[in-house]
Amino acid sequence: MDAFIDAKGIKRRFHTSGGDFWALKGVDIVVPRGKLTILKGRSGSGKTTLMNILGALDKPTAGEVWFDGKNIVGMSERSQAKLRRKEIGFVFQSVALIPMMTAQENVEYALRMARSKESWEKRAEECLKMVNLGTRMKHMPQELSGGEQQRVCIARALAHRPKVIFADEPTAELDTLTGLQVVKIFKTLCEQEGVTVVMTTHDTGLMEIGDAVYELEDGERVYGRA
Known about the structure:
single chain, alpha/beta, 4-stranded antiparallel beta sheet, 6 helices, 10 strands, globular
């Protein structure tokens, strides 16, 4: 297996008024390149903390994260910021589209922030067509359904051609059928675009869709299939 991310012995401690809290207690996972990896677990299991560490949004208390051959734990904040801007796309549970911009303009804005040198308009249109929103590009967010808004977020995350997309509970606010459609889009992106996708969920029904699946409980890995 070609590993895009190899995380070893990941621990994360948070200092609280009640003492130290270990959100992660030594987790090992491998994220295969160009595949869909699912991190499953209930709220508080540590899956979002782990994803934030894999995506260079947070640093572990202990452990190593090898990201496409680079040890990102030892990187400076500036280098991590550059990595996120150039090589990573994020999709969050909260859609957070800019309400006064159309679907296309929201995607173009992501390209502007990434300082992309290609045609923003052309690339935005291309990405929206990938998520089956070619006829909805000029619509405002409030004119789109929840599932359509989440697909705009996927197009936005994909626009600057990242190597990996991290999606934190992207189906949590969607009905079962719409959520399944969103996950199938991720699978298609992996197969047709070669993008690596890491997605967190608490939905047991989605586990079989992932190429690699890891389940966390109380900060520890209790199941893994890669």
